[in-house]
Amino acid sequence: MPAHPSWAEGSGQAAWKFLFGIQMRVVIASILTATAAELVDTHVYHLWSHGAGEMRPQWTRVFISNAFSRPVDSGLFPLIAFTGIISADAMFQMFGTNLLVKAVTTILVFWTIYLVPEKPIYRVDEDVGSAFD
To answer: Is 111 within 8 Å of 59 (Cβ atoms)?
Structure first.
């Protein structure tokens, strides 16, 4: 889409292209980054809760999995979305700011995991047995 004529007269076309020209890169970066970070988070959470952290408090699962997944999320997004568009220094600042905000958010809300008690997803009724017996 072309910019409004009044924008084009005042060098607004460059701003218009910047905002809407990278839209697909931002969408792709969001999808890829979210997928990668969630896979890392889930994998680390599983390893921790079935390994060294098995007997540790539940909150440690959140901290350990976030310690690995948040840097992946914060680092991949600017690389995919903005490489070649903004400077490496700006991307590094974006990475640092995102990481700091996500760390503070984790610290503020980690306790909410205790609002939902751990329950098995399903139960096997001993009278009925399993459908695969």
So the answer is: yes
